[in-house]
Amino acid sequence: MEPARLSISDHDVEFPVTVGSENEVGFDIRKLRGTTGAITVDPGFANTGSCKSGITFIDGENGILRYRGYAIEDLANHSSFLDVAYLLIYGNLPTRVELDDFHGEMTRHSLIHEDMKKFFEGYPPNAPPMSVLSTIVSSLSAFYPGTENGEDIDLNIRRLLAKLNTIAAFAFKKSIGQPYIYPRNNLGYAEDFLHMMFAVPSEDYEPHPLLVKTLDMLLILHADHEQNCSTSTVRMVGSSGADLFSSISAGISALSGPLHGGANTAVIEMLEMIRQDGGGFKKYVDKAKDKSDPFRLMGFGHRVYKNFDPRARVIKQIADEVLGELGIDDPLLDLAKELENIALEDEYFISRGLYPNVDFYSGILYRAMGIPTNMFTVMFALGRLPGWIAQWLEMKTDSDTRIYRPRQIYTGNNHREYVQIGRRCL
Length: 426
Ligand code: SDX
Description:
The longest helix is centred in the middle third of the chain and has 23 residues. With 426 residues, the chain is mainly α. Helix 8 packs across helix 9 and helix 12 crosses helix 17. The chain has 18 helices and seven strands. The strands form three sheets. Strands 5-6-7 form a three-stranded antiparallel beta sheet. A two-stranded antiparallel ribbon has the order 1-2. Strands 3-4 form a two-stranded antiparallel sheet. It is globular, with a radius of gyration of 23 Å. It folds into three domains: 56 residues, Rubrerythrin, domain 2 (Single Sheet), CATH 2.20.28; 203 residues, Citrate Synthase, domain 1, CATH 1.10.580; 104 residues, CATH 1.10.230.10. A hairpin with a 2-residue loop joins strand 6 and strand 7. S-citryldethia Coenzyme A binds next to helix 17.
């Protein structure tokens, strides 16, 4: 493709153009400052590619999402989360033998070091689970050092995938003052998580098969999403040479924000608020449109999707099925549907391409599983972990990778001669 040309002050500069496998076009500006002295400015990097990646493709205008070329709908309906985690990390769906080995590794490494339980003891009961998750994951660097040098990287990837379920369930049990339930080797990945969350020593507990299947599908739907805020954070931290666990810990912290993974919690809180307020949709839709009001319709809008988020479509469909089959009548589901209908007929949302995103309906399903609202974003992190790992690995092995270090346009004071104002305090 012809190079891109830029005319700036008295410079005419050409930049090579790169075209992706789905015909996305980007021009490579790595020589921009050296040839023109100027930089680009792109708050939030909405128009900036940080890397080339072969993991996930999103077509936001047409509501398309694919992991390693497979449509998200096909993976959600026909695959399992461990299949998809393997696909994202290793590039292809596993054979039967590879999957059995992978699942075996998940069971082999699902325990956490007994000394790590002391970390949980130090937290107050109301500690934010995402904060606990981020801290405990970071502490894995102390128990399994060397990943920054690539030592045992595959072993540590499998350790982390196996242990995050246990860490999340232990954080929940600690927050409600119940004894920890240890992982069981005879249970599947999602089944074992629900068992660790809801079993108690005094009675047998077997997760409902429909909830196990639903959780597995939700984990698939959250598994990766190209260069979103938390994934970019994982890549940025890893680009400094930091180890795997520290990089993932930083990603967990980035995901916790209400504009990102924290939105699934904020959606339920918003729906509850609307319900308490008598279901006055118009008031809240008007607030969301009012620029002077910080209120936003949580679970709506997306940086990339200007059409339906395909994940939201799948989740909305299974929410109907699961609640119907379990005989659960959650008024928030009907509220969410009504709110969606009103917003999608409103010019403000239509003109801005604001549709429900992955977080709009997911909380309804987590509630149906008995998962408390403050654990919703933890569920997002459990799903996103293989995507973070795959992206971190790709960054580590990409010869193009440099430490992330953006530039800025300075707008502060020009040089000022130093005049002592107060007296010098030594
Ligand atoms: C996730 O990036 C990913 O891939 C993320 C994610 C993933 O899988 O990793 O998909 C997961 O984070 C989903 C998003 C969850 N967040 C929310 O649901 C929070 C509510 N949504 C918004 O805050 C917002 O839509 C964002 C944060 C998602 C996107 O923000 P952008 O891309 O910076 O868009 P913007 O704020 O510039 O909005 C563009 C316009 C603005 O109006 P104008 O200035 O053009 O008049 O749309 C308006 C915004 O005011 N707008 C909203 C709105 N979202 C955008 N107005 C009301 N309610 C909203 N929810």
